[in-house]
Amino acid sequence: MSAIRSTWLEPRVMVPSVIAVVAVVALLTVLLVGGGSGGTTGTAAGANATTSEVSGSGSTDTGGSPASSVVPTPTTPQGPYTTPTMPVQVEVPDSAGVSQTDGVLDGQAVTVHASPESGSQLFGVEARLCRGDVAVSSDGDFAPTLGGVCIDKPLSTGSDAKVSVVGVEPYSGLDVTFRVGVGSTTFMTQYDGSTAITCGPGSPCQIVLKLQYPKGFGFKGIPVTYR
User: Fold this and answer.
1) 170: Cβ–Cβ under 8 A, 6 or more apart, which residues?
2) Total-model pTM
């Protein structure tokens, strides 16, 4: 009887062990499946990102070329420039009813009058001849070897490259006379290499004034045409 009872008890001891093993396997399966879900979520995010990129490309195709293929349009140089809020008025009076700056000849003198506004002063004026299609608005533009847009030397005999007039107390109005030349000059600039400037029929230029006043300075471009 004892042996028979032992035979019946043995499977009853084994059953809990099998159940325990199955439970462990089930737990591991759950953990593995859970880890797989995390990886799937990451993949889905990547897919969404890819979808977003493709959608963006589609929008670009319907509205225009992709940004990477857009070629920027060169900015067209601007002509004669006047510093805003500059407390100086500049006039180019006609000579005997004839414009001094339209249809000039080689070596022709152009006289400009500059006067400070009420409450201001004018300490001095510099004048240069520069290309007519560029806005000269800074010292870098005004200096020939920096900006490369103002002449470095007279274009012809009897003409000017630079004229300076210094004011005296009470630092009121100043007259500046500049002899405009016809011709070409080629010279080296510090950053952009060689540059060439031509003034004459078909190549209008400008007289650019740099005006010194209290706490600052400004620029005034005066267009010049030739005949």
Assistant:
1) 121
2) 0.67
